[in-house]
Structures are given as C-alpha cells and as structure tokens.
Amino acid sequence: MLLSINLAGLVVFWKFHEFCKNPGDEEAAKRFVQVTRAYELLANTQVGLKSYDELAAEMDQTRAALQRVMDLASRSSSEASGKVLKMGGATWVGDVEVGRPHGSGSLILANGAVHAGRFEAGRASGPGVYYDASGSVTMGSWVENKRTGAFETVDPKGGRWADGYDADGKRTSRKKMAPPPEGGAGALKCGVCGVKFHAAHNSACRQHSGKWVDAPTHNADGSKATVDTVAFPEGGLWLCCGGTSKHGGEPCSFGLHRAAEPPPAAPVELQIAASSGGDAQMKAAASGAPMDDLSAAAA
C-alpha cells in the first residue's frame, strides 16, 4: 500500500509539476492543485509517507537526469525523421534546406566527432554541443561556425570548465568549475566506432542496426564448406544492409555510443602461474595481451 501511494505521488509529480509553473493555464493549475491535495490527504492517513513537497524536492536530480534523456531522445527522434546528407567525409542527419543543413540536427565528422545543434545555411549558428572524438564535450552557442560568449566544457577526465570566447571565436578565458569526480572512469571508449564519450553526454554514432553473421564454414552434412571469398571477402555480412565489410566501409544506420566490453579475464591457472613466477608467455597471457604480443614475449 505504501509503495502504491508513493508511486501515485511520483505520477502526480511528473505529470502535473510543469502546470504549477504556468499561471496562464488556469484549468491546468486547478487540476494540479486538486490532485496535489488529494495525494496529500491520502499521504497523511499513512505513517511514514512523505509530503508532496518533500517528494518533489528529492526528485530534483532525477528530474534533471530525465530531462537530459528526454532532450537526447527528442533530438534523436527529430533527426530520425530528418534527412541524411553526405558532406564529403561528414554526414548530416537533420533538417535540410536547399541542399544544406538548416535547422536542428547532428553533423557527424569523419573522425567520429559530432556537432549537435542549430545550423543555418550549412553553418553552426545557435545553441549546440560539440562532442570531440577525444572525449571532451563543449556546450554553448555558435555564430557562423564560431564559438561566441560563455561555454561549459567537460574534459575527457570529467573535469568541468567555464570558457569564454570573443566574436572571432578565440578563447579568451578559462576557469575551473569542478575537478574530475572521485573514482570516475572518465570518458569511455565506444565499442562501435572507437571514439571516447561520457555516459552522461552521449551523441550520435555511425553503426549497423543489425548483426554481423559469418558465412557457414560447414555444410548440412557436417562436411567442410568453401566460403565464396568474392561474395564474402571478410567471411560474412551484415544482416541489416547486406554489407560485406565487417570493420571497413560506412555503417548503414545511426545510434548512441556504447562502451566497449572489457577483455575476458585470464583463466585462474594462468593468473596463478604468472603470480608465482611463470614464464614470460604465461605472464603476457594473464595480462590479456594479443597473440602477437605473446609471441614476442616468448621470444
């Protein structure tokens, strides 16, 4: 029962909280007050329940995080319904006018960096966020491709900086706002495209929407099959688009960065052998080194 009432309170908060900020909508404000009083009356009949004001106060951080997710989802949804425009090695996903980026969208550069925001006649103009391939994130406003005014930057380690730029796009000031968070891992490496990104500041990433499937190496009767290296030069294809290049070429779709999976842990036997003074090859194997490195270590 307590859980149900608290959940009801959360629903009230998320659904009607914005109405109290809009005094011009009398009907919405009236419904907000009615529902809030109903919740408070119900809460007062139960021991250990929090008031609406207490619940709302505790939701600040969650609301901010949810807003970031909603903004990202809104941008992704808008871009998905927009156009895809090739611009040399870069790709624009968003609004297009007269064959150029014009409106909202994301410009994905050849090295994986992304500028998400407003563009006018092919140039960054207005609020936006620049996600550098090294993991830094810069938020502010652009005029004719130039950063102007106040910016906030998150560096690859997670430290935050307040930067200032003049009308020519030159940085004129920098002040440290906050150090990297204690115990934070900093920017992560994307397992799809290889660029660095922060989980709290994700961006568009070129990727395939389906899975890579290796061409069969055996026939139905168990005999060895000959793989057609002309049709499958890399031994398989992408189910989503039929592409036959596993690591090269250009992916057929877009998504968000996702962290690369850590290498599998070495078998316990190798770890024991390495810690007890095993040979160089065992030590290299226990460290997760590639096979080429194992050969060098053995030599």
Q: In words, what does this structure look like?
A:
This protein has seven helices and 15 strands. By secondary structure, the chain is α+β, with helices and mostly antiparallel strands. Among the domains are: 2-58; 77-178, no CATH class; 268-298, no CATH class. β6 and β7 (146-154) form a beta hairpin. α1 runs antiparallel to α2 (26-44), α5 (268-275) crosses α6 (280-286) and α6 (280-286) runs antiparallel to α7 (291-298). Residues 1-23, 73-80, 280-286 and 288-299 have low confidence and may be disordered.
| Poorly predicted tracts of residues | 1-23, 73-80, 280-286, 288-299
Distance linking N and C termini? 69 Å
Give Rg in angstroms.
26 Å
Oligomer classification: single chain
Q: Residue-averaged pLDDT, rounded?
A: 74
Number of helices: 7
Q: What is the helix/strand order?
A: HHHHEEEEEEEEEEEEEEEHHH
- Helical fraction equals 25-40%
Shape: extended
Helical/strand content category: alpha+beta
By DSSP, the count of extended strands is 15
Strand order of the largest sheet: 1-2-3-4-5-6-7-8-9
Strand content: 25-35%
Largest sheet: 9 strands, antiparallel
Characterize this entry briefly:
About 30% of the residues lie in helices and about 30% in strands. The protein contains 7 helices and 15 strands.
Which features would summarize this protein structure in a list?
single chain, 299 residues, alpha+beta, 9-stranded antiparallel β-sheet, two-stranded antiparallel ribbon, 7 helices, extended, disordered N terminus, disordered C terminus
